[in-house]
Design brief:
The protein is α+β, with helices and mostly antiparallel strands. The protein is about 25% helix and about 40% strand. The protein has helices at about 1-35, 100-130, 135-160, 205-210; strands at about 35-40, 40-45, 45-60, 65-70, 75-80, 90, 95-100, 165, 170-175, 180-185, 190-195, 200-205, 215-220, 230-240, 250-255, 265-285, 290, 295-300, 305-315, 320-325, 330-335, 345-350. Strands 3-12-15-14-13-16 form a six-stranded antiparallel beta barrel. Strand 13 (about 215-220) and strand 14 (about 230-240) form a beta hairpin. The two termini are about 70 Å apart.
């Protein structure tokens, strides 16, 4: 009895093992040959106009000729400060008073030197007229008299400049004058700018700046993420010197009619138009997949198989990318889901 039971159990186990082996063998090749299908979205490439643009960030600065930076005419001290940053001033408004003692002393010394030079000239004139002194002595005395007059004018001018007044109508943008502090000619004490005459100065790499031209249009934006469109502008000047600190080139944009006035020092973003290309091959930005130092896309054939293709990018504009080489019109490329696709993957295109 025991032997019959063991024999039956042996036959049952062998049958189960054989069934499992057959099942695995019969379905193994089919599972390995069928690649996973990836759900993606695709777009058919069609030629279209492409506006090549460059995005940059800058700030609002006073236009050349509409900014005044005032310093002391000579080493002295600050005796009074009349203005603060942000204050509106008119031409001639008193800004800072400097100690005038040193300037008054210079004027008195120059006046005394002029009187002495005048007397010396008159004395030499009499001697020359009498035939006692040569003509060259009179020429020398005349030169000394002219120099004394120039020195007096300079001293008087410095005394006048000891009272700093605004040379333009505008807004005080900087005050670096402390009551009682010593100052010199190299220190800017007050800056005044005309807020109605401003430009946006962008910072760009030398490579990007090389693509621009004076007069090219731009769209100015501000706000969180530069989402607030201010209005149009045009490139007025392209810098030829690279800033040693930022390694950038300054691009001056002249604003057009804007939705609101710009404020000096405000950060502004700009999208500058480089060129318009007719009949360009354009794909959405999400179709690009980084590949080493370049990019690739996945082209889908009629059997819904994706094939890897290296492409050369010519430029970008928002969510669109201009493809110079690697694609032709009429080809279908993967957009959404491109990062999950491998070469020769089977794809299931969804709605474009």
């Amino acid at each position: 009895m025991r032997q019959r039971v063991l024999s039956a159990m042996y036959r049952l186990s062998a049958g189960i093992a054989l069934g499992v082996l057959c099942a695995c063998h019969g379905g193994g090749d089919e599972g390995e040959d069928m690649p996973a299908t990836v759900s993606v979205r695709t777009v058919v490439v069609q030629p279209q106009p492409f506006i090549e643009t460059i995005d940059a960030i800058g700030d609002v600065q006073a236009r050349a000729g509409h900014l005044a930076a005032l310093s002391a005419p000579a080493p002295t001290r600050v005796t009074r400060v009349y203005v603060a940053p942000g204050q509106r001033v008119r031409r001639g408004t008193l800004l800072v008073q400097l100690e005038a003692t040193v300037f008054d002393a210079s004027v008195r010394s120059a006046e005394a030197a002029l009187e002495a030079a005048q007397r010396g000239y008159e004395r030499v004139q009499r001697l020359v007229d009498a035939g006692v002194s040569p003509r060259k002595d009179l020429d020398q005395a005349a030169a000394e008299l002219a120099q004394a007059r120039a020195n007096l004018v300079s001293a008087q001018r410095s005394r006048d400049l000891a009272t700093l007044r605004s040379p333009i109508d505008g807004v005080v943008t900087k005050v670096d004058a402390l009551l009682g502090a010593s100052v010199d000619v190299n220190q800017v004490l007050v800056e005044v700018a005309d807020p109605t005459s401003v430009d946006v100065v962008l910072e760009m790499t030398p490579a990007n700046a090389a693509h621009l031209r004076v007069g090219a249009p731009a769209v100015l934006r501000s706000g969180e993420g530069a989402a607030d469109t201010l209005g149009p502008g045009r490139i007025a000047d392209i810098g030829v010197v690279v800033d040693s600190a930022t390694r950038s080139v300054g691009i001056r944009v002249r604003p057009g009619v804007l939705r609101r006035p710009l404020r000096i020092g405000e950060t502004v973003a700009a999208q500058v138009t480089v060129a318009t290309h007719a009949g360009a091959i354009v794909v959405p930005n999400e179709a690009l997949v980084p590949a080493g130092e370049g990019f690739k896309v996945f082209v889908v054939d009629s059997a819904n198989v994706a094939h890897e293709r290296d492409v050369t990018v010519g430029g970008r504009a928002g969510a669109l990318v201009w493809i110079l080489h690697g694609l032709t019109a009429g080809e279908r490329v993967v957009t959404y889901g491109a990062y999950g696709v491998a070469d020769s993957s089977k794809v299931q295109p969804g709605k474009t």
